[in-house]
Amino acid sequence: MIPNETLKKYSASLTTYKKGDFIFHQGEAANHFHIVKSGKVKMANFSETGKEFVQGYFTAGQSFGEPPFFCRMPYPASAIATETSKVWSCAHDDFMELLKKNFPIHLSVTQTLCGRLVYKSMMLSEIANEEAEHRIVTLIRYLIKEISTSGNYTLPFTRQQIADMTGLRVETVIRSIKTLEQKRILTIDKQGKIVWKNTKKSLPP
Fold first, then answer.
1. pTM of the model
2. C-alpha span between 161 and 157 (Å, rounded)
3. For the residues 146-161, what does the mean pLDDT come to?
């Protein structure tokens, strides 16, 4: 989390996006560092046939699109607001100056990038080698580790969003979720939300 006052000090601008608005498109130059102030943003790739693969979802306090920003390369995916969102944007030279003069923030950004690399490596392996249930369980366990909770956790994602993040069809996710519920690895609440149970059973099947 970078304080708002620090972002303002280094000339960051705050923009409001409506649901469905693009913050940037795949192939554009990565000239700004982006941080979600409020709302939710997804980064996604789209195939020529329109199939979507979601690289990740980002909420308040989280940055996104960092690797191409630091490498000065085009964005490999597009960023889209999935609900009304406010996003900070800081130009490259200004953000480099911010990092030079604020080591704790520099370290935090580095740690975030390392976590993202681990996630990418993990999901590539899952998609290449594992079946649907294993992919879903691995994704959920990673998300829970990110928020550091030890109790039961209600996922803020729909079946479709889980499908988009795991490269599965939504029908496959629905069937797998039902199977995992039967195995008592997770439960479904009255609203249809997925609730993860942190028990010894909560291991990849």
1. 0.78
2. 6
3. 78
